[in-house]
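Sorry, can you check?
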Amino acid sequence: MTLNYRIITILIFTITIFLCGCGKDEIVEPNVDLFNFTFKKNNNVELYDDITLVKKDVLIKGNVPIKIDLTALVADFEFIGHEIKIGDKPQQSGVTVNDFSKAINYTITDENGLSKDFVVEVSLFTGLPIINIYTHDSLEITSKEDYIRGYVNIWGGIPYNNISGDMKIRGRGHSTWENHPKKPYQLKLNTEAEVLGMHEARKWIFLAEYSDKTLLRNSLAFEMGYISNLDWTPQYVFSEVFINDEYNGTYNLCEKVEAGINRVNIGDNGYLCEIDTPDHLAPDDIYFNSTRFTIQIKEPETTTNSEKFNYIKNHIIEFEEVLYSNNFKDPENGYQKYIDVASFVDWYLINEISKNLDSKSYSSMYFSHIPGEKIKMGPIWDFDLSFGNVNFTECEFVDSFWTKRHAWFSRLFEDPIFVQKVRERFAYYRENESYLLEFIDAKAEHLHFAQQENDLRWDIYGNYIWPNPVVLDTYEEDLAYLKNWFIERMKWLDEAYANL
């Protein structure tokens, strides 16, 4: 009995210690808070209205109009605690001037000396980086061939650095240039620069995303490129563009498809080529006709019938002759001798999943080749008329194959080994479907304010824009259309590949 009594006593003591937390260090939260954080027009002469920031836990965020000087703003706020500082500088609501061009930590200390940081992030306009383009004499950009000179300032905000300098700019694109009032551009800096966290380069592309009311189709395809085995996919940053102090909308600023160490790395003797359509060719473009396509030599610089020209022309024709020969399936002397199959599979699937209009037989179909190595498909490019955003072909609908009818791929699909590789690789993209849908939602949230301003500039929602298959009234409806199309397309392909 005495032993049992002692055991019971020890158990009761142990439980009591556990329940009251005695015998261990307790985490004591400071009794502090920061709230009602506002920039009032009475204390900031540039403001026309009060701006109240949104608080989520310890992060306080908000946007201010485009012309506001972030480096000299006075904040009004309420706080719980003994004192509030930024670094060693005491803060007084409605009085202290601070530089909000970068994130600021407000440290609040309570009566017991315990402290907690609150982070305040303030963004200009929509929260996206801001690009100011000034052309000489405020000239309008009217040509795709001729650059006009000027000056550019890129304000990255959080977390990017700012850059400024001389540049030249021209139009670009085909249907996007001819059919739409919001124009795409190519900008060329005087010297290479790292722009908004992307690798150093001189040439940068401004995708207008005018017919794509979600603004997301190119970035969705690029995201698929990032999770693929393709050698390189362009990086991009959504930005707000002003031309000669006039707002021109939200753009997808991205890397140009061109040869370079940080872009399509073809070394010193490689080739970057584009399967193109004859009506896109300019008088000074260098191209050849294979047995199936018109192929433009983008890199290197060469001349018709030169040694470099004849090498790539003959090599592609030789590949096509083998591809369409009776022994094309031979693993040593058939098509596999000429192409990097993994790159062909990934390039094909990204274009097939998106049902990209141009990818069957039209344009923007890039491939590279280094002599002594295999032909690689990629990079991927030009997806504004994809994911159901076209009304004049079957690409509007989720069913039926499209890119599979590309002349090279239709032949490759006659090889069961290639078909099996496609099936296996499609399973990978199917596994990432939820991730890609989450990506769409995250990017839409990122563009929450931008899509509103872009619509105020261009009045796109509720209006037909070539070649939209549906006309919807809100950004949210267009976003839902994109997501549903993608989901249904993946379902159809899943069954279709299983039955090949």
The radius of gyration is 29 Å. The longest strand covers residues 115-124.
